[in-house]
Amino acid sequence: xxxAEPDLAAAVARTRELxxxxxxxxxxxATFEHDGVLVRVDVLSPGSDxxxxxxxxxxxxxxxxxxxxxxTQVWVxxxxxxxxxxxxxxxxxxxxxxxxxxxxxxxxxDADCLAALGDRIADRSRIVAEARAVLAGDEPDVGTGEHxxxxxxxxxxxxxxxxxxxxPEWPISLLPRTGRAAAxxxxxxxxxDLRDLPSGALTNAVHERVRQATVTGEVYHDRQGAIxxxxxxxxxxxxxxxxxxxxAVPRWIGARPFQQIPFQFSCHIESEAGELAHSGFxxxxxxxxxxxxxxxxxALLSGERCGSIIAYNASFEKxxxxxxxxxxxxxxxxxxxxxxxxxxxLPVTRNFYYHRDQRGSWSIKAVLPTVAPELAYxxxxxxxxxxxxxxxxEAAGPETSEARREQWRAGLEAYCERDTQAMIVLLxxxxx
Length: 432
Hints:
By secondary structure, the protein is α/β, with parallel strands linked by helices.
């Protein structure tokens, strides 16, 4: 690897020294400069007719914004006097499966993009010149828009919007799924607030429901519809929620990149008489949690131990259970029986309940404060799924103290249990 020490000028010089000296191995972080533009190439490999550039990405495919980055690298490297024979995006192969511990050959796939970069490479000098002109001139007068958040959120957004008047309290963009596009269309007519849209303007039934609840402040609640939708859910009812990690680099045999591996679940079982019992599973020792998780599920939920198994956005829980069945054939029959009993509370909520404070979302964290504010997540150490993943990685780390590990254990258990508590309260509220 070419180190950026003592500075990048030294890295440029060291790269040139390696290339001119006939270096025959891949160079990591090879550094080049041309016309004031400096690039560091992830992997530069020698070949018979030039050097191969590989830009390494953690995505499972090539994104359009990767190509501009790669084109700049090719332009700088070639203009600096080093011939380039190929240029690829080296991305994760989502079909890879870890078969043996430590054997990761095939984890990455190369997508050669050099032929597709011609116009972009030819345009680099113009782009650089225009960028210099912008830097040398006054602050440009450019309005904010979608370019401020795609493909990434700009870190200067707060600066560019500092003088903007406050936006509407209930923007049209709150409309689910197509709200941003709808907001852009209505803005052309000078309408920005959902409450200002004329009655009958929205033809989508869900959008109109959101508009009416926002205008009137009244909760939309079709109790009878929720009762009918859930009438067939059998007793005793189980409420199930998983927490998972999905690392790009698989940790355990049989796992794929980004595959969601359950390390925790919470389960409440409710009798028809209203009696509740809670059980859970949590593995934070850093080992493969799947076998123990699968066995705990089978012991708790297989056979006649429960009727319907209620989840929120149940496709996720179903996927987790099916993946466990694939890995453990001896448990597959019981696990697939469990998977078949999972029902989804999310569409019931979406179809029969809306409070304007949800602001266009039916995530359980948006709905719960409108139903049972005392069960919101603000008082928890772990407040969402992303934080749960971070907590697992720290708790499972060998350098983590036992006291800190136990702190994370308590935080994870409280968070996951809150999710299943929330489902119980929500279903009760919907059908009461």
